[in-house]
Amino acid sequence: MSDYHHGVQVLEINDGTRVISTVSTAIVGMVCTASDADAETFPVNKPVLITNVQSAIAKAGKKGTLAASLQAIADQSKPVTVVVRVEDGTGDDEETKLAQTVSNIIGTTDENGQYTGLKALLRIFMKGDHSITSIEIG
């Protein structure tokens, strides 16, 4: 156990040509709401791979959490991001709307066997090979 290292380890190589690659710790995954987002760019309950966060903000709409979340990410770094957009809850009162929104974010398996919400996001990251090349969208 003397070789155990908890956390991220950085190996710096100072000679020769180096290939820059994306590692699994550099991928951001999130589930957001955005009722006015572009439906083609951000279909409901479908994981979307974003390699340019700043350009995706323009199609994220103004309502919900998607645009603000993407902007917060872009303010800090430029990671590869996977987004699942879910619908806002509906109902007669705010408590019902909030409960339904939370349920949409958590997700489930629909009648067609498709994952929704966090389950759709989890399916991508639990494929075994945690590299960007292993992500299958759809």
Overall radius of gyration: 18 Å
Helix content: 25-40%
The fraction of residues assigned to DSSP E strands is: 5-15%
Rounded mean pLDDT score: 83
Please summarize the sheet with the most strands.
Answer: 3 strands, mixed
Strand order of the largest sheet: 1-3-2
Q: How do the SSEs run, as a string of H and E?
A: EEHHEHH
C-alpha termini separation:
41 Å
Q: What is the count of DSSP helices, taking H or I runs of 4+ residues?
A: 4
Poorly predicted spans = 132-138
Which outline best applies? globular
Number of domains: 1
Could you say which structural class the secondary elements and strand pairing correspond to?
alpha+beta
Oligomer: single chain
Query: In total, how many beta strands?
Result: 3
Description of the structure:
This is GpF1. It holds the Pfam family Gp18_domIII_N. InterPro entries: Gp18_domIII_N, Tail_sheath_structural. The protein is of the alpha+beta class. The protein has one domain (24-134). Helix content is 28%, strand content 13%. It contains four helices and three strands. The chain has helices spanning 53-57, 66-76, 94-106, 117-125, and strands at 27-33, 47-50, 80-86. The chain has a three-stranded mixed beta sheet.
